[in-house]
Amino acid sequence: MGKNRRHKAAAQARRTAADHGPEFAALMDAATAAEPAHAILMGALESSRGNTRAARHFADALIRDGVFTPILEEGAQEAALQVLAAVYKNGWLPEDIHQAAARNLDAFAVGYLTDMMAVHIAHFAPDTIDPTWQVQLEQLGATRWWSTGDPHLRQWAAKQLLIPAEALTTVVEAVGLLFRLPKMQLIRPLPGDARPHAVSHHAVDEKVLGKVRGLLAKAESTAFPEEAETLSAKAQELMTKYAIDRVLLDADARDPDLPGARRLWLETPYVDAKALLVDVVAQANRCRAIFSAEWGFVAIVGDDADLDAVELLTTSLLVQATRAMIASGNDAARSAEARSRSFRKSFLIAYATRIGERLALANEATIAKSAEPERLLPVLASHQLAVDNAFDTLFPTVKSSRISAGSAEGWQAGQAAADRAQLGARRPIDR
Questions:
Q1: pTM to 2 decimals?
Q2: 162, burial (CB in 10 Å: exposed 0-12, middle 13-18, buried 19+)
Q3: Residues linked to residue 301 through DSSP beta bridges, in sequence order
Q4: Which residues lie below 8 Å from residue 141, measured CB to CB, with a gap of 6+?
Q5: Distance (Å, rounded) from C-alpha 249 to C-alpha 245?
Q6: pLDDT digits over 371-429, tens only?
Q7: What is the DSSP pairing of strand 288-292 with strand 429-430?
Q8: In a 10 Å sphere around its CB, with 0-12 CB exposed, 13-18 middle and 19+ buried, how is residue 210 labelled?
């Protein structure tokens, strides 16, 4: 009976392969005759090229009698770890991979990749792992929950209530996504390459951060856009005061910290308009930003404390902007256009532009009130030069582009939500 099932499975695999032409049939024959890890890699590569049935076809061809074999389980993990390591070398961090997977795969595949991240990181000594990696993996819950005495794939499939063919299909699809991820800039040291270093001069004071969080929490909770923007401006003023003290101290340091970088992923829709908001907040906090339209994230370059400020303030402003945009569209006095994509995108562009102006004014006022404005200005200029140099090193081929508002009504509503101020020209963002 077992032999008959194997014959039937093989015949079915040949029939499905033949449906895709002789080239695919030859590919599958070569893959199933090879080592399982190689076969899974070939199936994943075929899947990454747009063949939506490749993952299931390869899984059906590799599964024998409906059960996993030890060599297949070992091969699946070997294939996943091999491609995962290559993707890391291409500049992708754990959170980046998670975000890409969440946007393109189901929850099973996302969970499988998270487990493989836990397997990969276990090979490195903790003191050789960059703190960014440690924090991201912890936030993703990338820990070994399974028994190390048995293969991971079998335990994971049982936990997810997947039959072997379904589980292996998920593995092939997950690895296929990794093949699709393009090469990016390496912004943090790889596991094994990080070295212990002195405490950063730019570590954020938790008391200051707590006050900023409190102001932004109030801004997010109020139903009045003007009050929300005032609270956000106060948060920016506090962060600027703290940054001024920090850069003056760093100017006297013999070994000032170098700028760092991180990626902020944005939720659809209107990603380009939201990226504009990130850009203006980054500029107000002495950082540079570049938008990846294809994948939906903004890479930001700056000092660690400034990057924390950008991430914190941007997250809050996106909440505020979205709430104000929806409230404006729900206004019964407005036309049906107020719920259109054009209106909402225009709203967010206007909102971001005005927010950028307000943050810039808040910065100018804070700098003018500083105890040493004459000394501060050249120090800030030197600081900005260091950030610009780091940005140009990471992104040497940057080009600027513009986004436009297609709805006058949406633009006006965005103005109103951002304190009814006169808005300037549309601001370009780097891509």
A1: 0.79
A2: middle
A3: 261, 288
A4: 114
A5: 6
A6: 777 778 888 888 889 999 999 999 888 777 666 565 666 666 665 665 532 222 233 44
A7: unpaired
A8: exposed
